[in-house]
Amino acid sequence: MLDLILCVDDDPITLMLCKMVIAKSSFAQEVVTAQHGEEALAYFDDLKLNNLGNDIARYPKLIFLDLNMPVMGGWEFLDEFAKPEYADVFKETRVIVLSSTIDPRDINKSKTYPMVIDFMSKPITKEMLEDLKKIF
Amino acid sequence: MKNKVSKISLLFILFLMFLAFVSHKLLTHFTSDNNSGTFHLIITLAIIMISGIIFNYTISKNNQRNNKIFDKLKRNNDEIRESNERYDIVAKATSDTIWDWKIQEDHFIWNKGIQGIFGYKKEDVGNTSKWWFDRIHPEDSIKMSIKLYSFIEQKTERWHDEYRFKCADGSYKYVFDRGFLVKDENGTAIRMIGAIQDITKQKEEEQRLKLLETVITQTKDSVIITESEKANKGIPKIVFVNPAFTEMTGYQSGEVVGKSPTVFMGRQSVKNDMQRLSQALRKKEEFKFETINHKKNGDEYWISFSMIPITNSEGEHSHWISMQRDITEEKHREKEREQLIRELTQNNKDLKQFSYITSHNLRAPLSNLTGLLNLMQDIPVENLELKEILNGFSTSTHLLNETINDLVKVVIIKDNPSIQKEEVLIKDVFENVFNQLSFLISLHKPILKIELEKVTILNINKAYLESILLNLFTNAIKYRSPKRTLRIFVSSKEVDDEITLIFKDNGIGIDMERNRDKIFGLYQRFHNYPDSKGLGLYLVKSQVETMGGSIQVESEVDKGTTFTLTFKK
């Protein structure tokens, strides 16, 4: 079971659904959420601030990321998160794109980011999480 | 000659003297009067001498006159001979055919030209004017004879005419004939001499040029010829405009000839191309441009303007030929087309936007619904009514989800007109498809007959081909006939640069009479089966066409259906 994961989605119902499915399948201890990319980055910034000079002991090892969001979308977030200021600090964090799109161009694009390990279609299901458990 | 005359005179005198002497001797012999006899003799001799001298004088005078006449005659003779010779030489030298017509006797003589130029044999050439007239082209003969006879009757001073003259082989030659009259002392025409010139070549050239000229005069394109600047120091001067020019610009020929083309080409219209135009003029290069111009009455029109430099026989640039075409309508059409393309592009963008909305904004809440329903399944529901409602809710949600997923698939295919293609071995694709269909195949146990040419390689998108075959196989299984075992026959063949894939089943078929136009349509269903959505064949066709192929269908109710897919290699 994972300790902490982050769900980024602008839709509160999706977030609620995520939390419920994750809890049901005992996939993670704690789920933090963000409404868009900027909020997610702010969360990581806070983590860095609170642990100035120290190694960050506890940070999300997995992010479920939506693509289509206001303020900052999924792609923009990935671009930012791939930069050394994040990628070097949160080395173990992996991303799963969880989107309602099934456009193959999006799927191909997601493969260009090293931290993205999968592209999944909504809705999130217990079966998906069972499969993921094998990786983590 | 003179000596001869003197000799004759001397002999004559001597003879007479001898006669006088003899008669005197006889007279003296028979008479006695000696004195009177001698005296008579002297007188006689004197008379003889005198008459001899007179005789000599008269004869020599006469002789002299005769000689003069003879000399004159001889000279005349020489002149005539020379003139004859000259005539012969000239007749030989000239290509003209010369004829000589004694009008009263109607006797006609031709020189050798009639043989050489017109190909008649000597014996075929007639010697009457009829023979001549008979060989004049029927269309020319009346006009020609009117002119000829008014000349012979001396109503006109000169006669020359052009007409067609028949050759020995039946063809006609264009000739130019000139004639002169010989009159007697009363002024009556007794002879006519003429010279026929073969002008067929000139005439043909003339006709050819006339024909070529019609190109300029009849064409709808405006044509202008200008002199080169060198000949004119400065701006080229117009030397010719054709009728189409007047039609197009409104300027009459007289208004522009002798002037520069700036008369009808506004400065405004050449402004953009001024640089290139002046360069082309300088370098004597062909030049072409399109511009808005104004007619004489101010109307605006679009012209396509081209200029071609022309050189004279010495290879020097002498003229410019310029052609203008009114392209106003084309320009309008072009504008309309551009407008249409803009509108279509916008519409297309809107539609793409719409499909994006479909795939995102519809799918997002729908996936939430599905997710929530999934969660709900684990919660026991006591209320039966609520349970039924939730079941209906779940079914509808899944159906909606499927429909939207299908639509998104279509949108993706339509949005990718040029998808990635690769070399695909058909056999591999079939293996994949059968793997996916293994459950259905084991369930219904159709008889499959697959005849694929071993090396059939298609340059296509593998995923699409799989999807196509999957659709066709599931259709064949879904719409099998309950009366007989399902047979599916798939074959492929290569013809030229095309590969044809034939997919044949013995299922329930489709009524082609009613559905030919709808068979590949979106949401077209031909059988009321619960899981038929009318999407499969639409997807198949879309995918085939996206890969540049085509699909045909033949079907008979309760016999089966055959799909023929054709792909370019």
UniProtKB/TrEMBL annotation, chain A:
PTM sites of type 4-aspartylphosphate: D66
Keywords: Phosphoprotein
InterPro entries in UniProt: CheY-like_superfamily, Sig_transdc_resp-reg_receiver, TCS_response_regulator
The name this protein goes by in its record: Response regulator receiver domain-containing protein
Any single GO BP term: phosphorelay signal transduction system
Keyword Phosphoprotein: yes
Record has Mitochondrion as a keyword: no
Domain Response regulatory: 4-136
Span of the signal peptide: none
Pfam families linked to this entry: Response_reg
Automatic annotation (TrEMBL), chain B:
Pfam family, one: HATPase_c
EC number from the UniProt entry: 2.7.13.3
Catalytically driven reaction(s): ATP + protein L-histidine = ADP + protein N-phospho-L-histidine
PROSITE patterns reported in the protein's UniProt record: HIS_KIN, PAC, PAS
Location of the Histidine kinase domain: 357-569
Residue span, PAC domain: 159-211, 285-339
Transmembrane segments: 38-59
Highest taxon in the source lineage: Bacteria
Domain PAS: 83-155, 208-284
Any GO molecular function: phosphorelay sensor kinase activity
Keywords, ordered alphabetically: Kinase, Membrane, Phosphoprotein, Transferase, Transmembrane, Transmembrane helix
Keyword Kinase in annotation: yes
Name the UniProt record assigns to this protein: histidine kinase
Source organism (scientific name): Flavobacterium caeni
